[in-house]
Amino acid sequence: MKVKTEIILGDSCEELKKLPGNSIDLIITSPPYADARKSTYGGIHPDKYIEWFLPISQELLRILKSTGTFILNIKERIVGGERHTYVIELILEMRKQGWLWTEEFIWHKKNCYPGKWPNRFRDSWERILQFNKDKKFNMYQDEVKVPMGDWAKTRLKNLSKTDKIRDNSKVGSGFGKNISNWTNREMAYPTNVLHLATECNNKNHSATFPESLPEWFIKLFTEPGDAVLDPFMGSGTTNIVAKRLKRNSIGIDILPVYIDMVKGKITPVELVLFEKKEKYGKVKHKGCK
Amino acid sequence: MKVKTEIILGDSCEELKKLPGNSIDLIITSPPYADARKSTYGGIHPDKYIEWFLPISQELLRILKSTGTFILNIKERIVGGERHTYVIELILEMRKQGWLWTEEFIWHKKNCYPGKWPNRFRDSWERILQFNKDKKFNMYQDEVKVPMGDWAKTRLKNLSKTDKIRDNSKVGSGFGKNISNWTNREMAYPTNVLHLATECNNKNHSATFPESLPEWFIKLFTEPGDAVLDPFMGSGTTNIVAKRLKRNSIGIDILPVYIDMVKGKITPVELVLFEKKEKYGKVKHKGCK
DNA sequence: GTTCCGCATGAATCGATAG
DNA sequence: ACTATCGATTCATGCGGAA
Predict the structure, then answer these.
(1) Which residues contact B112 (CB under 8 A, 6 or more apart)?
(2) pLDDT tens per residue across span A9-56
(3) pLDDT 10s digits, A99-146
(4) What is the distance in angstroms measured between the alpha-carbon CA of B97 and the sugar C1' of D19?
(5) What tens digit of pLDDT does each residue of A221-260 get?
(6) Which of B85, B125, B189 is closest, CB to CB, to A192?
(7) Cβ A173 to strand D below 7 Å
(8) Quick check: B173 CB within 7 A of strand C?
């Protein structure tokens, strides 16, 4: 199967308008968080976040197939000692646009950021919001079945690793091994809580989520040959995984340095240097007309 | 220390008005879920939930000390294939009342209900919302420290040596910093994700949460002798734990059968019989005037 | 070839200080 | 009074080099 991966440089707000309607099976993204990643994305003020995001979600609604799914990874910041309300307000506003708020998954980050404060503990979870256009959407639950027991704690990561091995062996020597180990065990459906560590260091890229995260949702909501979109591509984790899993994909990012990296023109190490230099630091988010 | 446990029969909406202002250190409750627990609570329609709850939260705001905390265990139902929005709307409305939405903990229910649906997985988490009256509130973090992760077992011994050395060399210019931080390195502060199994043992009543849940928050937000309130007592888990931990407590419930049980007049087994018979089934929630 | 150890670092937050 | 910057605090993970 021939798979197409399209990488687009530009502001999602503008670029999405050029994409045809009802053409995407899965949108999965982790947009710049409010006021976060200042050095690479400029940051959007929490109070302006909804107003910034709604034009984009409007376009996403148009582009998504009626059987498709929109997965949004997001978490609200602390502002003035409180959790800010822009995320939950965003849910309400997106429903007014016509989105169905089907589910909220929890991503439990096992290795969360350290720190100690007098009034709160470390934050070790993020929201993964599932939106749909229609009550009827594609879902391939059997593709993410896991061995019984503590499924996600260690299994999910192992699963993805074995899948990689299996892929490699197909391409390479052709030894299909370890499969019997898995099929013999009793398999169960997972829950709506995902336990994944963040791939923090030495990977030399600023991926917002580990590969296993988009992998899980791509398997769950698409089939090979389907179309996956990440409107805030970053270092391209979603697209890399989509390609490996034989899904077509589109990635959009406003920063040329990410485009270069995903296209292989620069290495992850060089990317880090760019980021450290803040060469592309102050991107202005103008908002769509 | 003499501890007082007060059990009140009545509608929280009315009974809360009789309690003095600024008198409670911790409110922790799991209110009747929308449309759930029909047999014992009548159920509140999701669309009416906010309107039903706001008069109560208004009274809770009055009763709570400025240093106190309100812990609300809640999860939205699925209505029409979607997560209903009454919980997130409730957060917004409570903030208008003057509550601060300090934090959202996740209760990960390890052994959640079984089941399978074509469009969603099992729900294995609930929201635990933390509200406060003031940015400054009492929090006793050391009371809920937990053992460090498994990685520490294999690494901590030698690691602690070098860490101490490194710490000393850093501080070498200054004077003796608190080495005590590093001496008991076996315990760490928890995060905002709680992993608790729902209690299946013995529990022949419709307890909404396991004892470990109120225990954790009572330890975290109160000291012995403080006052704890559960305005939807049910079988009295909060009050039982409070008593064991030497906290004064008040429990309110509208169903006589719960009062009887908590006061020891009937056994949990008899309670189940009552519940099954739906003898007190159709409680009307009139709302406060 | 394993196992073990040292180390850097991550979508963070608070409180104090400075302009 | 309000915003901007900075230091202090802290823990799980994976990599690379060593035993």
Answers:
(1) A191, B122, B123, B124, B198
(2) 999 999 999 999 999 999 999 998 887 555 555 678 888 999 999 999
(3) 999 999 999 998 899 999 999 999 999 999 999 999 999 999 999 987
(4) 63
(5) 999 999 999 999 998 999 999 999 999 999 999 988 889 8
(6) B125
(7) no
(8) no
Spatial separation of the C-alpha atoms in residues A75 and A138, rounded to whole Å: 26
B77 CA – D14 C1', rounded, Å? 39
Closest amino acid to nucleotide C6 (CA–C1'): B159
Run of H or E including B50: helix B49-63
Mapping DSSP onto H, E and C, the string for B173-219 reads CCCCCCCHHHHCCCEECCECEEEECCCCCCCCCCCCCCCHHHHHHHH
CA distances from A145 to A73, A108, A140 (A): 22, 19, 10
Q: CATH number of the domain at B5-144+190-275, out of 3.30.2290.10, 3.10.20.30, 1.20.1740.10, 3.40.50.150? A: 3.40.50.150
| B interface residues, A as partner, C-beta within 8 Å | 80-83, 85, 88-89, 91-92, 95, 100-104, 106, 108, 112, 116, 118-125, 135, 137, 139, 141, 189-193
Sequence spans of domains, chain B:
5-144+190-275, 146-188
Give how far B17 is from chain A: nearest CA, Å. Answer: 28
B-chain CB neighbours of A141 within 8 Å are: 118, 121
Asked if A112 and B191 count as a contact pair (C-beta separation under 8 A), the reply is yes
| pTM confidence score | 0.90
What integer is the mean pLDDT of A190-209? 75
